[in-house]
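Changelog entry: the Alpha/beta-hydrolase record was regenerated in this release. Current contents:
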Amino acid sequence: MSNQETPFNIAIPDSDLDLLKRKLELHRFPDELEDSEWDYGVPLPEMERLTKYWKDVYIPNKWREEEATLNRELPQFTKGIEVEGYGTLSIHYVHQKSKVVDAIPLLFVHGWPGNFLEARKILPLLVEASPDHPSFHVVALSLPGFGFSDGPKQKGFALPQYAEVCNKLMLSLGYNEYATQGGDWGSVITRENALRHGKKHVKAWHTNFPLGELPSLKRPLLLLSHFIFGHSAKETAGLARSKRFLEKGTGYFKEQATAPQTIGYSLADSPVGLLAWIYEKLATGTDEYKWTDDEVLTWISIYWFSKAGPTASARIYYEAMKASPKAFSSTVDTGIPTGYSYFPKEISQLPRSWLWVPSLVFESEQEKGGHFAAHEVPELLVRDLRKMFGKGSPAYGVVPGKTGYK
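Regenerated structure tokens:
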């Protein structure tokens, strides 16, 4: 497999920018009930402000500047990855090497509604050379159907295929042994990758979105502990937060897991519809993070200008959940060193006893941060990765010969 990389720069045609502006000019907002605020979804004043700014300021004055900044900050490439049964897909990715030659190769995998921009803030921290902590060679791909990667054209592209792309990409870059990090779908995909390619290629994995299953007769000791000992105040609050999310925050999940093409017409044709669909998750999934309008619109614009179109990204829910219905509700041991970081405003917070697996070697509980930890609190996520792979940790040196520091 060739190590050759094709450099990539974001360069959206003027015609695409003009079309986006015209569509925004033709928007039609719904009405809104009095005092509804966020109870019914994104408030109308929020959408009015963001739409006007997108149309009148961001497109004509900000996008080209942001495009140039992204191209300058993020070393981007594309590479053809052959996926069994699906042909060769052009995969877009960021690849930043540390100046430390023996740094740890790390694959970062985003979720939905994330994208490769989630690695933007952690990248300079991870590659930083220091005698006090390990350094990393970082690869952050756009998953198939996201960003500037090709989307699959045939049905059935599920977790095994996403894992295949991840592993083949790392191998093609010369990283035969590497570690992974991911949240949201990134957690599920890196776990799948570890199960399929662990020990030989994937040496350790870390997630800020640990997943587990409810106590049941399949896990009798856990079920007994649940009823006899109960949970701490913090765990009880976490369960309540998880319940609220299931009751009020999973409509998008059910729609995309059952009829992604139906919502896809809105996502592909209406920039206002796309903005509302994704902005709701950005705003409600964070720990009081103050998103700037520019941040939000860059994020949404990546979806709007994505190579396969925004509908392609939604299909991951349909295909993956059809093939693996318990992808988000099972406790799985990968058999390789595993690390968990717990953030207080994560959308799902289960008791640690429900999440425990024999290969768990690192845990860290943070005081702030939500679902988009890499973007919200990059320094905290990076600190955990440095600790997990640093001296004194069971994961130190698990990538043979690549400790990253002395």
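The chain has one domain: 1-406.
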